[in-house]
Amino acid sequence: MKNETPRYSAFSLARRGLSGKPWPPAWRAHELRPSYDVVIIGGGVHGLATAHYLAANHDITNVAVLDKGYIGGGGSGRNTAILRSNYLTPEGIAFYDRSLTLYRHLAADLNFNVMFSQRGHMTLAHNDSSLRTMRWRAEVNKLCGVDSDVIDPNEIAKLVPRMDVSSEARYPILGALWHPPGGIIRHDAVVWGYARGADRRGVHIHQNTEVVGVDAIDDRVTGVRTSRGPVSASVVVNCTAGWSSLVSDMAGVEMPVQTFPLQAAVTEPVQPFLDPVVVSGTLHVYVSQTDRGELVFGASVDPFPSYSTGGSLEFIEGLAGHVLQLMPSLHRLRLLRQWAGLCDMTPDYSPIMGLTPVDGFYVDVGWGTYGFKAGPVSGEQMAACIATGRTPELIAPFSLSRFADGHLVGEKGAAAVGH
Ligand code: PYC
User: Fold this and answer.
1) 263 ligand 1 Cβ < 6 A
2) Collapsed DSSP state (helix, strand, coil) of residue 62
3) Could you give the 3-state DSSP secondary structure of residue 352?
4) What span, in angstroms and rounded, lies between the C-alpha atoms of 106 and 26?
5) Which of 369, 411, 419 has the most ligand 1 atoms within 8 A of CB, as the residue to mutate?
6) Do the domains spanning 31-112+186-257+348-415 and 121-178+259-343 agree at the CATH topology level?
7) How many helices (H) does the chain have, and how many strands (E)?
8) Which pLDDT score, from 0 to 100, does residue 12 have?
9) Would you say the CB of residue 80 lies under 6 angstroms from ligand 1?
């Protein structure tokens, strides 16, 4: 089925908005069928993108996406919406670069404004060893064809005039890794766009439908048990974050994953002044300014595992101190909200994707602090893996078996901040 959403002109859009008529739902509610070809657990960007590409690229439409809450209510709605591809390993760079390419075309592909703002991504170096790592990352990225370079404090000051690049700063800035293709996007819009795309092609999206068991006979998956009854399926895909090890355990597949909260916060909106995304690994902080003018801050994960999605005073105090070290003139800004998302950390800071020892049970998990930016490529590649039964080249390095055979994909130096 083609995407039949009408294309509005600015005038017809305004007329439609002012007409007082309710907008048509972007995706529909359905009865839960007793059987689907594919059941996807988790209605975040990964699960919805997988469903969308199964239908759009492979004509597999008898698909259910199950979420125990509402779609995008987990990591997809709790991240800081940063996109970039400047990783450390050639495997990671190629993978995230494909995601950025898909993100660049996503608004047109989904006929939905996802508000991608490609404004550049800057990772600061405050000491010689970080500068060395930035040079290393820049060179690997360049060899892989990804635009990344080390810039000096004068260039940083031109890009971010409010940054304190003086030598008197408590943590002087020696340089930065500059990655022009990075940026930010509206994370909810990505979720809604994929949900709408999948729905248009016949996928069933079931919210408030919790999976309580995964059934398998002789190491072959047969379906799931849900809070709304059993569903049989020969393919079950674990696209959850936060609960990925628990869901995999239901199928008898052990995941080397530990779950940690990552806290974030947002300020009141102010006039636009910050163009790029700015990250400081040393100060455990990153900041970007949304199109609405709010500053969005994030940090590294909390120091101990937990399933808490609340915020702590300790985090806010540390965050405020660190942000003011970088941009002292922000001292009057007020914070509006704080929250946390759950990060499933793997030993090498790379995801776990593809087939498992249980036939028909696939995983797309272990997304640590980097899951949102990988949504499109994960959906595309998982869909290809399911449709063909073979592991696509781009995700082969991220197989579960790497932890047994020792071929780890070490991304700790570029995965996020301050790990
Ligand atoms: O990897 O760019 C990143 C990131 C930003 C926030 C959390 N992780």
Assistant:
1) no
2) coil
3) strand
4) 17
5) 369
6) no
7) 11, 19
8) 86
9) yes
Which residue has the CA at smallest separation from atom 4 of ligand 1? 416
pLDDT tens digits for 191-246?
Answer: 999 999 999 999 999 999 999 999 999 999 999 999 999 999 999 999 999 999 99
H-run or E-run covering 349: none
In CATH terms, 121-178+259-343 corresponds, of 3.30.365.10, 3.30.420.40, 3.30.9.10, 3.90.1150.10, to 3.30.9.10
In this predicted structure, what is the pLDDT of residue 313?
Answer: 95
- For residue 24, name the pLDDT band (cuts at 50, 70, 90): confident
Write down the pTM of the prediction: 0.96
The domains of the chain are located at 31-112+186-257+348-415, 121-178+259-343
Residue 370 Cα to ligand 1 middle (Å): 6
Rounded to whole angstroms, the Cα distance separating 169 from 126 reads 10
Residue having the nearest C-alpha atom to atom 3 of ligand 1: 416
Tens digit of pLDDT for each residue in 360-401?
999 999 999 999 999 999 999 999 999 999 999 999 999 999
Q: Is 84 in the pocket of ligand 1 (CB under 6 A)?
A: yes
**C-alpha of residue 166 to centroid of ligand 1, in Å:** 26
Average pLDDT (38-46) is 98
277-280 vs 121-125, strand pairing mode:
parallel
Could you tell which of 76, 82, 349 is best to mutate to test the pocket of ligand 1, judged by most ligand atoms within 8 Å of the CB? Answer: 82
Q: Is there an atom of ligand 1 within 6 Å of 349 CB?
A: no
Instruction: Give the other-Cβ count within 10 Å of 284's Cβ.
Output: 19
* CATH class, 31-112+186-257+348-415 region: alpha beta
Residue 343 token pair: 């990060």
Q: How far is the centre of ligand 1, averaged over its atoms, from the C-alpha of 143 (Å)?
A: 22
Tokens of 367: 């997304």
Band of the pLDDT at 415, cuts 50, 70, 90?
Answer: confident
* Best mutation site among 370, 372, 412 for ligand 1 pocket (most ligand atoms within 8 Å of CB): 370
